Amino acid sequence: MLDLNADPIKEGGIAEFARRFRSGELTSESVTQTYLDRIKKLDPKLGAFEYVAYEDAIKTARAMDALIQSGTDLGPLMGVPIVIKDVFNVAKMPAPHVGSNIELSDILGTAEGTFIKALRQAGCVFLGQTKAVEFCLGITGNSNTRGTPWNPTDLDHHRVPGGSSSGSAVATAAGLCAFAIGSDSGGSVRVPAAFNGIFGLKTTFGFWPTDGAFPLDPRVDSIGLLTKSAQDAMLAFKTISAILFGHLYHPRSSGVRLDRLHVGVPTNHFCDHLNPKIKMAFEAANQHLQQAGCLLDDIHVPEAAERAGYFPVSMPASLIAILGKEKFLEQKHLIDTVIAKRIETGLDSKAYQFLALEEKRTKSMASVVDQFTGFDVWVSPTTTDFAPLVSDFNDPEKAMQFALGMTQNTQPGNYLGLCSVSMPLPTNGLPIGYQLMASPNADFKLLEIAVELEKSFKSLAAV
Fold first, then answer.
1. Residues belonging to the active site
2. Calpha distance 234→360 (Å, rounded)
3. Which of 27, 55, 168, 173 fits a disulfide with 196 by CB distance 3.0 to 4.6 angstroms?
4. Which helix (H) or strand (E) holds 28?
5. Quick one: which of 176, 200, 181, 198 has its CA closest to 190?
């Protein structure tokens, strides 16, 4: 039986690790070695990793131990072992596969991007690269090309982990790292977070730089975090952002209190086609917030449904532009057949149609910012259903229905340029995600709110 409970950075999270690391109670090397041992033991079943940096991770951890002992402190993430979605260039690691068997170095180059360099400056220890769905074009996490990671919330049945940050979510949920880096273009952090019972942050589009990463759709791509708690996500977000922006980054605490929060609950789109148990859990969470003093008001978000017409055009067209028509047609036989069919539709895209969609989106983004006036966050279920079995995807029609339900509530956040998180709700069964959405560039306040909700939800009865 797999032991998923011996995570060395679970109790107390990253902040507690940082305290013990600085007091000398533990070393980065010892914790890194524990994670590497867990990966070696558990990943043959879970299949979260593309590459494990056994030797380099230990070398980095030892260097962090030597630095802290000499009096050099790089900050709260120093010595913390993390994993990185296999869509980023990382020095001393293989070129990213991006879930594919196609050679992509001519597109990505080899240089590390600004964000990965910031993680190095923070003193993070890179354990390895985690699996992604091919070209990040898949919300389920199901991958015929390089294998589907095993969702650790059900070790008896192979359930999809959600995608495209599938390996990052599984590694975090299974205690194979302190936290993970993912990317989110339509739900690729939040859906895996929901399915694996962990916390997922999708940052505001353009807030963190995406150079050095594979571009699924540069108009909506954003970097995100997969963590064990909102508190861990807050600490990581503040630390990384401070390195990236220096003196330009000075977020002020908003003094979040639940009895002063104004929460919007959409009356359209976000509660369509919900599994009854998820609906029950969502309503129970909202009632809990009301009892805690939050003001909940209904809102109508007509722009949310526009995502259904936008993404089927934008993403395939973007991938054709990135891969090149000739390369795609020549190597189409190497691509997962479902994903290849989706990309192929981009060959028929017309510029005027796409420009019209983008113009409509620009207007909707501005409209939604206005609609956030007076509201701190909007809330919804993260997904409409629980993580399905991998075997369910043998039926293409059923697979499509599952995929549509997974992106229904997450794609609007990307389409409208919002920041968003998924946090787990207490449950007696498979995990349920509770999504918070906030206006663009309100990431810090969003995380403050999530931290307070996380504390409050500990007293919420499991559904």
1. 85, 164, 188
2. 33
3. 173
4. helix 28-46
5. 200
The CATH number corresponding to 13-248 among 3.30.450.190, 3.30.200.20, 3.40.50.11460, 3.90.1300.10 equals: 3.90.1300.10
d(CA 241, CA 203): 11
72 burial via Cβ count (<10 Å: 0-12, 13-18, 19+): exposed
pLDDT over 90 (residue 370): yes
In the chain, what is the greatest distance between 2 CA atoms, to the nearest angstrom? 62
Burial of residue 105 (CB within 10 Å: 0-12, 13-18, 19+) is exposed
Alpha-carbon gap, residue 34 to 51, rounded angstroms: 17
Q: What are residue 262's DSSP bridge partners?
A: 295
Statement: the pTM of the whole predicted model exceeds 0.90 = yes
Q: Hey, what long-range contacts does 88-93 have (CB within 8 A, 24 or more apart)?
A: 88/112, 88/113, 88/115, 88/116, 88/129, 88/181, 88/212, 88/213, 88/214, 89/113, 89/116, 89/212, 89/213, 90/116, 90/126, 90/129, 92/53, 92/56, 93/51, 93/53, 93/56, 93/126, 93/128, 93/129
Q: Pseudo-torsion of CA 32, 189, 200, 178, nearest 10°?
A: 0
Quick: pLDDT tens for 186-208: 999 999 999 999 999 999 999 99
Q: CA-CA distance, 374 to 381, in Å (whole number)?
A: 22
Q: Residue written as tokens 């980023």?
A: 88
User: Domain-by-domain residue ranges, the chain?
Assistant: 13-248, 258-303+351-457
Q: What are the two backbone dihedrals, phi and then psi, of residue 93, each rounded to the nearest 5 degrees?
A: -125, 160
Question: 202 - beta bridge partners?
Answer: 224, 420
Fold match between domain 13-248 and domain 258-303+351-457: yes
pLDDT single digits (tens) 78-92: 999 999 999 999 999
**Alpha-carbon span 21 to 41, nearest angstrom:** 25
Q: Report the alpha-carbon distance of residue 304 to residue 272 in Å, rounded.
A: 12
Measured CA to CA, the distance from residue 79 to residue 61 in angstroms comes to 6
The topology under which CATH files domain 258-303+351-457 is: Amidase signature (AS) enzymes (3.90.1300)
N-terminal to C-terminal alpha carbon distance within the chain: 26
Output phi, psi for 366, to 5 deg.
-65, -40
C-alpha to C-alpha distances, 264 to 28, 33, 307, nearest whole angstrom? 42, 45, 20
